[in-house]
């Protein structure tokens, strides 16, 4: 269907890849030979063979069949479609086995795609052979998903053309080479000080999962408790020299999760080893290459003494997510990129499922609801969203769908389905699916069939619209005595779905509880809404709520009086219920289904809340409301007063000191509330933050700031002190040895208050001091800062040709993310017009979807601002926040 080999019907089944003459400096070129064993199907003859190849130079191509050896007479490249054609100059009439041997040259690039290099500053003695320049040393590794194996070697680069791989790499003897499977042997090399590392044969897999790495690596090791073929499996975390001990936390999680998933999926982990590699420059969070999983350093390394505790949660989850892929994605692979969500949505859900098993006190599903579900709602509420399963006609389009829809909406609807049919049944269906399709490819329908069989329900009929239609519904509730009327319609952030955009009728699991009180409420017998409108009878209106624990992927719009009552009953609601209540009230206010005064009155009741995840939802939603009204001075000031009054009791109660043995979530609450209260100007907290900042920066007392409070204290200092704090934190950025230190500095520098400092910060971001992978971190912080947000747009506009585009466009994932999150916080049509006009005549392939998201978000916020401005002002006046 989409295989570019249709014209000569060749199917690869094995690759021999040999890389040699790697240049460890200068141009970073390398030479390679790839031998591809193929089957040619019956054909009426062909003159040429087409492969994927991108930025490679092929020296020669030879096709060997049982009959003859044919040399390519002509080699041509189609740069745009990333293909190479070998013309053999005559018609070849042949079917059966054939071997294609290509000699080629490639470059170890520095754009985090294909076979690439990452710069770092080493700790300890480094072998002389390690690549370096005046300032940095380099490690080499690969990132092939989605379509970048073709940057490293010519291949048939499509997920359903699976093959086995033999890899060998010539390296200096004092460095380490890794690949998907263990080393088989080393062979002597003609070059002094070098040898060739030969790896065992890989299992049958897709090209995007192949991986290798070279560097000055060391490792920490553990073994699984379970036995695999009679032996415990070795599990290792590899780092560049001097960092390996920071891999111990990931290691401890890793061997337990491998055992857990082997049981949950009822299939033993399929490879003889699990390696996790920390990579110094990385475009995503991590990549699930089979048996050699690569990570950005902050997603796999953690130091008990110097890391912020939030990274503990991040490392545990990312490790679980990538391990889930070893079965779901690697053992069984989606047939084509349009079903990417199958990989990502499932790995996201089951990653959290494993972390809940290991850390029951983290309230993982509360975190899932505030981070994953709410974030998915945000993107899916736009006209320019896309269905979970999205048609992809060309592999090159796929990078833009590695987004919140594939990962977060995907995992949200999986959670909805698993809670509907029951977790045990759901996982049994998944295990059956994996067994049926191992080492091959499968589709969404294959998964639905396995789940239908396991549950005895027609899963396809109720999931189809969730997967293949755009958007999600809001359920509006109307109360009548003893019954409620329900109506579903498509939820749009702009609140203006036209009839032709609102034709989908979703299957909606109601999760309706009602009773004489919140405590006495029980599940109602009517469990789903399957039409546009319906009436549910026998509802006790003393207390009722829809969508218990927010397991359904929809918004609920209650009458204002009911919202108030639910707020009053909040101590009887679960953490997920509270998050859903606040999140829905906020979204309905923006879209105009509800009102901002309703939201403000509801949230006011949460002053005595003690849960971090609920506060996180409140602070995020109020921050967005403040963002939208930041240009209206009286409302802006009043909303700050309102929020400061709201958070003050909780912030003062949680205090500054971390106590021995207190839970993870208490520490997270402290970090959140000190940050928000300080930035809003709480006098006592500001003074204490600055006192600690001075002790820390002067070097007098480095323990004055707990690692988890660096973001809060640095942010408060930058806001209050301006240039002197800005300089001090820039210095901290360049000298920090903490693995998360650079990310934290960039995020806090975004709190600058003057256009001059904002421009200075943007110039710093675009200097070579900030790694490509981190350029979005500081920019996102600036874009969330109403004082200087406009400077991001000015910088993009004025430096597009000189800095922004040349620096970021080598890797479209990075450019798209930078724009999408750097420009989406405005609430002014005029700016949306400027952005649209600026990009009108540019080639926006690779980031056009991001521009649509920016435009739709800005215009929806602008509409909200003009619609709600007067009622918000009125409420703030009536409640004493505007004199």
CATH fold group of the domain at 1-215: Immunoglobulin-like
- The percent range for strand residues is 15-25%
- Helical region count? 25
Give the oligomeric state: single chain
Low-confidence stretches: 1-8
Report the average pLDDT across residues. 95
Q: What's the total number of strands?
A: 31
Share of helix among residues? Answer: 40-55%
Which CATH architecture of the domain at 1-215 would you pick? Sandwich
Question: CATH first level of the domain at 1-215: which class?
Answer: Mainly Beta
What is the approximate shape?
globular
Strand order of the largest sheet: 5-4-8-2-1-11-14-13
- CATH evolutionary superfamily of the domain at 1-215: tricorn interacting facor f3 domain
Q: Distance between the terminal alpha carbons, to the nearest Å?
A: 67 Å
Main β-sheet, in a few words?
8 strands, mixed
Structural class: alpha+beta
Which value, in Å, is the CA radius of gyration? 28 Å
């Amino acid at each position: 269907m989409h295989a570019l080999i249709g014209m000569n019907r060749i199917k690869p089944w094995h690759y021999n890849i040999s890389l040699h003459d790697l240049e460890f400096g200068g141009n970073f070129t390398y030479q390679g030979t790839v031998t591809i064993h193929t089957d040619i199907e019956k054909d009426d003859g062909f003159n040429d063979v087409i492969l994927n190849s991108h930025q490679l130079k092929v020296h020669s191509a030879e096709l060997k069949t049982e009959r003859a050896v044919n040399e390519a007479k002509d080699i041509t490249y189609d740069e745009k479609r990333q293909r190479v054609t070998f013309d053999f100059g005559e018609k070849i009439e042949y079917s059966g086995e054939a071997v294609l041997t290509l000699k080629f040259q490639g470059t170890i690039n520095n754009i985090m795609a294909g076979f690439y290099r990452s710069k770092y500053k080493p700790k300890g003695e480094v072998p002389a052979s390690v690549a370096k320049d005046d300032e940095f040393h380099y490690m080499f590794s690969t990132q092939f998903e989605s379509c970048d194996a073709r940057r490293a070697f010519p291949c048939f680069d499509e997920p359903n053309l699976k093959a086995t791989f033999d890899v060998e790499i010539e390296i200096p003897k004092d460095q380490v080479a890794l690949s998907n499977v263990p080393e088989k042997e080393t062979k002597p090399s003609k070059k002094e000080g070098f040898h060739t590392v030969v790896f065992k044969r890989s299992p049958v897999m897709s090209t995007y999962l192949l991986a290798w790495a070279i560097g000055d690596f060391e490792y920490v090791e553990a073994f699984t408790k379970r036995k695999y073929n009679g032996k415990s499996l070795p599990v290792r975390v590899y780092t560049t020299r001097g960092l390996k001990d920071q891999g111990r936390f990931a290691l401890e999680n890793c061997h337990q999760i491998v055992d857990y998933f082997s049981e949950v999926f009822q299939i033993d982990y399929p490879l003889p080893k699990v390696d996790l590699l920390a990579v110094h420059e990385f475009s995503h969070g991590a990549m699930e290459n089979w048996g050699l999983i690569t990570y950005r350093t902050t997603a796999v390394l953690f130091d008990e003494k110097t890391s912020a505790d939030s990274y503990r949660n991040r490392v545990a989850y990312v490790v679980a997510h990538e391990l889930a892929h070893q079965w779901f994605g690697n053992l069984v692979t989606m047939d084509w990129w349009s079903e990417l969500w199958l990989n990502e949505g499932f790995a996201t859900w089951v990653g959290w499922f494993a972390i809940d098993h290991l850390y029951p006190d983290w309230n993982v599903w509360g975190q899932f609801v505030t981070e994953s579900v709410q974030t998915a709602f945000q993107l899916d509420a736009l006209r320019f969203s896309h269905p979970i399963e999205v048609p992809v006609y060309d592999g090159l389009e796929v990078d833009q769908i590695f987004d919140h829809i594939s990962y977060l909406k995907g995992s949200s609807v999986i959670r909805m389905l698993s809670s509907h049919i029951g977790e045990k049944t759901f996982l049994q269906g998944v295990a059956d699916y994996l067994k049926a399709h191992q080492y091959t490819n499968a589709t969404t329908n294959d998964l639905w069939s396995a789940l239908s069989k396991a549950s005895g329900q027609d899963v396809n009929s109720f999931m189809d619209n969730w997967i293949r239609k755009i958007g999600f519904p809001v359920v509006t509730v109307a109360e009548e005595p003893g019954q409620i009327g329900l109506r579903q319609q498509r939820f749009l952030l702009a609140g203006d779905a036209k009839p032709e955009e609102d034709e989908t009728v979703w299957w909606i699991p109601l999760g309706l509880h009602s009773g004489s009180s919140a405590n006495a409420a029980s599940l109602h017998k009517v469990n789903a809404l399957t039409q546009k409108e319906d009436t549910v009878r026998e509802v006790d209106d003393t207390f009722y709520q829809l969508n218990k624990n927010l397991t359904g992927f929809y918004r609920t719009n209650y009458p204002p009086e009911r919202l108030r009552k639910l707020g009053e009953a909040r101590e009887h609601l679960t953490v997920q219920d509270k998050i859903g209540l606040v999140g829905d009230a906020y979204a309905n206010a923006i879209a105009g289904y509800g009102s901002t005064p309703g939201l403000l009155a509801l949230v006011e009741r949460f002053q005595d809340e003690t849960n971090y995840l609920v506060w996180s939802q409140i602070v995020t939603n109020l921050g967005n409301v403040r963002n939208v009204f930041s240009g209206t001075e009286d409302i802006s000031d009043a909303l700050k007063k309102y929020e400061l009054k709201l958070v003050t009791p909780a912030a003062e109660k949680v205090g500054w000191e971390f106590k021995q043995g207190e839970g993870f979530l208490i520490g997270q609450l402290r970090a959140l509330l000190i940050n928000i209260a300080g930035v809003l100007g709480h006098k006592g907290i500001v003074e204490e933050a600055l006192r600690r900042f001075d002790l820390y920066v002067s070097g007098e007392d480095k323990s004055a700031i707990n690692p988890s409070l660096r973001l809060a204290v640095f942010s408060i200092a930058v806001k209050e002190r301006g240039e002197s704090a800005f300089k001090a934190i820039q210095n901290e950025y360049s000298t920090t040895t903490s693995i998360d230190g650079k990310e934290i500095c960039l995020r806090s520098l975004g709190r600058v208050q003057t256009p001059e400092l904002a421009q200075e910060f943007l110039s710093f971001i675009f200097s070579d001091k900030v790694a490509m992978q981190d350029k979005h971190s500081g920019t996102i912080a600036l874009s969330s800062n109403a004082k200087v947000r406009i400077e991001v747009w000015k910088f993009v506009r004025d430096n597009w040709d000189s800095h922004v585009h040349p620096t970021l466009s080598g890797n479209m994932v990075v450019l798209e993310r930078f724009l999408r999150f750097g420009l989406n916080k405005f609430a002014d049509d005029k700016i949306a017009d400027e952005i649209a006009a600026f990009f009108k005549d540019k080639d926006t392939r690779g980031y056009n979807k991001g521009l649509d998201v920016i435009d739709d978000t800005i215009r929806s916020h602008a509409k909200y601002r003009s619609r709600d401005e007067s009622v918000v002002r009125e409420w703030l006046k009536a409640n004493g926040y505007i004199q």
